[in-house]
Specification:
The protein is of the alpha+beta class and 260 residues long. The chain has one domain: Fumarylacetoacetate hydrolase, domain 2. The protein contains 7 helices and 13 strands. Strands 1, 2, 3, 5, 6, 7, 10 and 11 form an 8-stranded mixed sheet that branches. Helix 1 crosses helix 3. The longest helix has 17 residues. The N and C termini lie far apart (41 Å).
Length: 260
């Protein structure tokens, strides 16, 4: 792809984000798009957000669980950037009209106290660099029509980032088994999904190590103070105005979100 086309597609996705509308899948219109092209489009999209006043505060890992892979038909992880414009507080109402086709994921968020610069990062390195973990909701959203995405579409669309909510406790992960900790996700008082830490590439710390090493090969560090969303622990749950959700993760805590 030419730099001009990359910029055009990045601008198209940014305009779709701002206008709360969908676009046709990029892979339908440009069948030769590569994953490298898609990340270049993502860079353009995020540069537009930063130029508009947002600040990068972390990263997210997407498509880490088999449940999400099967739902999307995408079978490898990806990553996107988190900005301060995506954050909602615990229990705060999210206006559904600001999202397009949102789905909720229960995840474990890592808050870093040291930089992680790959390649060569292990899960043990991740835990040593982590200040604490939190239960969180990532509300994924897609600017791609009807979620008809291939890996290149979701990568270009900043890994289908929407907004996220961090939970009510920050917990030292070294006293926990993040692989076996159980997750329960409730929607309007009913359990709609269950999972465990192992859903995220075998262990959430493995997912963060994958991210550190993938970014490291691109010359991008994970920085102290950043938030890293380590991937969904179960299926994605569609949400709409009027819905209330809570996720509880054993040993870590909970997180609540509601939509108006």
């Amino acid at each position: 792809m030419t730099p001009e086309l990359i910029n055009t597609l990045g601008d198209e996705l940014y305009d779709a984000l701002e206008g709360c509308r969908v676009v046709e899948p990029l892979t339908n219109r440009h069948p030769d798009i590569t994953i490298a092209d898609a990340y270049a489009i993502q860079q353009r999209l995020n540069a537009r957000r930063v130029d508009a006043g947002e600040r990068i505060i972390g990263k997210k890992i997407g498509v880490t669980s088999k449940a999400v892979m099967d739902m999307l038909g995408v079978y490898q992880p990806d990553f996107g950037l988190l900005t301060d414009g995506m954050v909602y507080n615990e229990g705060e109402a999210i206006p559904a009209a600001t999202l397009i086709q949102p789905k909720a994921e229960g995840e474990i968020a890592f808050v870093l106290k040291k930089d992680l610069i790959g390649p060569g990062i292990s899960a043990a390195d991740v835990l040593a660099a982590t200040e604490g973990v939190m239960a969180c909701f990532e509300i994924v959203d897609s600017r791609i029509k009807d979620w008809k995405i291939k890996i290149q579409d979701t990568v270009a669309d900043n890994a289908s980032c929407g907004v996220f909510v961090l939970g009510d406790r920050l917990v030292d992960p070294r006293g926990l088994d993040l692989t076996t900790c159980g997750m329960v996700l409730e929607k309007n008082g009913e359990i709609v999904a269950t999972g465990a830490g192992a859903a995220a590439l075998g262990a959430p710390a493995n997912a963060v190590a994958w991210l550190a090493n993938t970014l490291g090969r691109l010359g991008i560090p994970l920085k102290a103070g950043e938030v890293v969303l380590s991937g969904s622990l179960a299926i994605m749950v569609p949400v709409k105005a009027g819905d209330s959700l809570r996720v509880s993760i054993g040993g870590i805590g909970g997180c609540s979100v509601r939509f108006v």
